[in-house]
Amino acid sequence: MRLNDPLVAEFEFEGIEYQIDLAFDNVLDVFDALSDPSLSEIERIELALTLLIGEYETKNGVALWNYIYESFIHIETTKVIEYDLQGNPMPGQEDEGNEVQLIDLEKDAEYIYSSFRQAYHINLMVEQGHLHWNEFKALLNGLPSNTIMKRIMEIRGWEPKKGDSSEYRSAMNDLKKKFALNTESGEEGE
Question: What's the CA gap between 176 and 190, in Å, rounded?
Fold first, then answer.
């Protein structure tokens, strides 16, 4: 996102101009469509394209989807790099790091909603159809540390450090379990 670029409402692909609806709630609908197990991969892509651009004129829907996803929707994942006692990245981790999922847009919807209300006085229900995906991502990434969503993200990314008391470690491990994103069962930790 660049502040001197307008928010994307149209783009060109294979010489054809497309209008695109990147309202945050529409993009969340696209994520829902992409995770629908009752659809084939091609059906998911076709539904995602229909939600975003309506009718499209290319035979290569997969390439169009890949272009849209990489150009306008993709969310970077946070990588955690472990360091040795001298502060150097552990061998083999300089470029890689372990991916840690700190947020799930569906499972954390309540926390995101309340954090936007608290931090920005934005009612995401009122902003449906209006708030652009890039604006939503920027606001989400910039949540202050005193919001519930930011605190949960910090808990999920917490790793014990030398000098942490056993009580603190135990409390943080309990919180990590409570707010864990359990990707196998599709439920948040209890």
Answer: 10
Q: Please report where in the chains the tokens 């919001």 appear, as a residue.
A: 147
Q: Provide the 3-class DSSP secondary structure of residue 16.
A: strand
Please give the backbone phi and psi of residue 96, each rounded to the nearest 5 degrees, phi first. Answer: -95, -75
- pTM exceeding the 0.90 threshold for the entire prediction: no
**Which amino acid is present at 36?**
D
Nearest CA to 13 out of 51, 59, 67, 55 is that of: 67
Which residues, including other chains, have CB under 8 Å from residue 12's CB and lie 6 or more apart? 18
Q: Count CB-CB contacts under 10 A for residue 132.
A: 20
SS3 per residue for 13-55: ECCEEEECCCEHHHHHHHHHHHCCCCCCHHHHHHHHHHHHHCC
Give tens-digit pLDDT for 56-89.
877 889 999 999 999 999 876 555 555 555 556 6
Task: Report residue 71 CA to chain centroid gap.
Answer: 15
